[in-house]
Structure formats: C-alpha cells, structure tokens
Design brief:
By secondary structure, this protein is mostly helical. The protein has one domain: ABC transporter involved in vitamin B12 uptake, BtuC (Orthogonal Bundle), CATH 1.10.3470. Helix content is 68%, strand content 7%. A two-stranded antiparallel sheet has the order 1-2. Helix 1 runs antiparallel to helix 10 and helix 7 runs antiparallel to helix 10.
Length: 340
C-alpha cells in the first residue's frame, strides 16, 4: 500500500507539470486556434527566470578576512553577497535562499510580455494559415529560443535550490498509519499547480473578462458583432497562457535542474496530453495531465520495466492510441474542433 500511494504521488508530481503546460496550450488553441509548438520553450524560459534571479541575488564581492588563513598563514579572501552586505546576513541570506519562489514575482510580467511579443510579432500572421504552417513556424521559434538560452547559460543543467525550509522529506502517512516519506518541495509543487489551475478556471468562470473570452471561444463572430474587441482579449489570453507555462517552469527548477532542452522534453508529451484530454477542452487537459502522469509513474516501476522493457517510454503514447481509437475527440473534446 505504501509503494502504491508513493507511485500516485510521483505521478501527481509529474502530472502537475503536464497539466500546467497543457492548460496553457489549450488556452491558446481554444482562443486563437493556433497550435503553438513554442509553448515548451516558454516553460524553459520560466525556469531560467529563476536561474537568472538566483545568480543576480548571489553576486558577491571579495574581502580579506584576517581571522581566516590558508595553510601558509596568508589571510583568506571571503566572498560576501551584496544582499547580505546591504540588508544584513539574516535578511539578505533569506532573500537569496527564497530566490526561486521570489522569481514568480518577476516571471509573471516577463512571461506576459514575451507572450504578447510572440503573438503580436509573429503568430498573429498565421491565424488563417493551415495548422501545419503554425506548427512549423512555432517549432522553429522554439529552436531559436532554445539556442539563445544555450548561448547565454551553456549546455549543462544549472542547480536552482529550493529554500532550506522546503528541502528534505516529511512523512505524509502519519495520520494514516503508513510510512510515506516524500520530498517537501514536490508536495509544494503539486499544491502550487492545483492553486494555479483553480485560479485560471476561476478567472475564466467568474470574471467579466473571462466570460467574454469563453463566449468568444464558443462563437467568436457573434461576440465581435456585439462591438467587443475579442482579438485584443485573445491576445491578452496568449500572454496569460505564457505566464502559466513560465510559472510552471520556475517552480520545476528545484525538481529538475534547468537546461536548454527541457522545453522540448516536455513539449511532445504535453501535446499528447492535450490530444488525449480533447483539443480545446481545459478540464480535459488538466484531467489528462494528471492521469498520464500517474500512468507514467506506475510504468516506471521496477516490476513494470522488468516485465515489459521500455514500457515507461511508450505508455503515454499507447494510452493516446487507445483513447483516440475509442474516443476520436479525446476524453472531453468538443465537436468540430480540428475536424474540418
């Protein structure tokens, strides 16, 4: 039972990333009708927002400490972060320690700006073009962004540590009489994903802006005839979708050190999640993200890989085949989406 629950937790952990990326993908497709293959790059850029802020916070200057010497008796040079010099060791050290969560504050406007620039500068020219053209141009954009990150940050993964208070493990099964030690940050990431998903749905469901967007997703022409600039609202949604992907990347850094190809690693799987959930269906994207994450977790167990070697690499695609054979529109797909 302990092992079974731990595999579910592992699946929810990976499924959180799938669900957040797929949610942004579906927002873009549902509003603008664009198949955005650059969405994984937005996830990567978000992760490197955390890397950048951590490096900025860690900028130090050297001083000579006469109380410390090397083996020859020479005074040692000590590096002191500027933040600790300005705010004191405790507050400055705490700011550096919490650099990843603090990156969320910076990542939101940065990712919205990047999303708006992408949409206004490039993607809007492909609204009426075939989906194949959209895939090619956004995939090319993803490669360009990937190479830019590689040029500035290098090819090796960069550690972005979680705050000390959220490191380590704690026993989730204390109240159930089970032994379920699990990393604190992974639980925190799952809770963050749930809050973000809830916030997106609440925004679309309960705000006037969100209601207009949902109406535009259902019947864009009629909303436009009412005198509402639906194109402007859809552009803003592209920026918000970029922010969701970026925030997912920021918080994923302590789980998997960011590298320049992490966006591509998640991109294809996230598109499979969208297709399984149903093109244009936001609840379907979230449901499929968590479901496929759990299935991938169980397929990665020693028993599964010994019984069926390589099953952990193909399980998501097998599920996609089965779902599409039985439900061509996906689990919660809408009629008429990509069926012309």
């Amino acid at each position: 039972m302990d092992a079974f629950i731990l595999q579910i937790l592992n699946g929810l952990d990976k499924g959180s990333a799938y669900a957040l990326i797929a949610l942004g993908l579906t927002l873009i497709f549902g509003t603008l009708g664009v198949v955005n293959f650059a969405h994984g790059a937005l996830f990567m850029i978000g992760a490197f927002c955390a890397v950048t802020l951590n490096k900025l916070f860690s900028i130090s200057f050297e001083t000579v400490d006469p109380t410390k010497t090397d083996f020859l008796g020479n005074p040692l040079k000590v590096k002191t972060p500027y933040l600790e010099s300005w705010f004191g060791p405790e507050l400055g050290g705490a700011i550096i320690d919490w650099s990843v969560p603090l990156s969320l504050i910076i990542a939101i406007p940065v990712m919205i700006a990047i999303g708006l620039i992408m949409e206004r500068g490039l993607i809007r020219h492909f609204y009426k073009r075939p989906h194949a053209d959209q895939i090619l141009v956004t995939f090319g954009l993803a490669i360009v962004l990937q190479e830019v990150i590689k040029y500035f940050f290098g090819a090796n993964p960069i550690q972005t540590p979680a705050p000390d208070a959220l490191k380590g493990v704690f026993d989730l099964g204390t109240w159930l009489g089970l032994s379920l030690p699990y990393p604190i940050w992974r639980v925190f990431y799952f809770l963050f994903a749930v809050v973000t998903i809830f916030a997106v749905f609440a925004f679309l469901q309960f705000t006037t802006f969100g209601m207009v967007v949902r109406a535009g997703m259902a019947d864009r022409e009629t909303v436009g005839l009412l005198g509402i600039n639906i194109d402007k609202r859809f552009s803003i949604m592209f920026g918000l979708a970029a922010a969701v992907a970026g925030l997912a990347g920021v918080m994923y850094g302590p789980i998997n050190p960011p590298n320049y190809h992490m966006g591509m690693d998640f991109l294809v799987l996230s598109f499979v999640v969208v297709v399984v959930g149903g093109m244009g269906s936001l609840p379907g994207a979230v449901l499929a993200g968590f479901l496929l994450g759990i299935l991938e977790s169980f397929a990665s167990t020693t028993w599964a890989t010994t019984t069926l070697p390589g099953i952990n690499q193909i399980i998501i695609y097998l599920v996609a085949i089965i779902v599409l054979m039985t439900r061509p529109r996906g689990l919660m797909g809408r009629k008429g989406v990509m069926e012309e």
